[in-house]
Amino acid sequence: INYMSSFIKKANSRKFRSIMLPKFDKAIDDRLSKKNWYKVNGRPDVIIFEGWCVGARPERLKTLKKSVNSMEKNDDNKLIWRKHVNDQLKKGYKKLYSKLDCLLFLRAENFSLLQKWRVIQEKKLKLKNKNKKTKQKIMTKKEVLNFMQTYQRITQNMFKSAPKYASIVIKLNSNHQINSVKYN
User: Fold this and answer.
1) What is the pLDDT of residue 131?
2) Structural domain boundaries in the chain
3) CA pair distance 55, 167, nearest whole angstrom
């Protein structure tokens, strides 16, 4: 949050010269070393801030109480994780997202389709990196499905609420093709 907020502030400054942007490697589930980061020279005209739950908003406490999956039911029955995530969305993320001029929401048909796409993505990642000697954190299908439970609540809330506040909503079909585009 702090790095992105700082970048946006610097990019909007008339004194902007250059900045290094981290490059993330999904195969190792971490940023690459600084020598592999992107160097942005000169003030950018457009910044695309991409991410799974960019623009997510907090939920009411009442909705947090109902578990949406087995992880929440079995491992978060006291709502500790749910409340923590919700608090983060209310504070730092809200402040960060308020700096966005436009929010484009890519809307899949449902959460199970996202799970399918993420499993496929992981398989492609494994093939792409099969000869690399770095320590990789490529997940199995079971690991992907478990991992995605941590984002299920936020994602499903975005399915319901983001079409109301996103600047542009692009609905995707199961083949990643655009079904419709809505401008708010």
Assistant:
1) 77
2) 48-183
3) 11
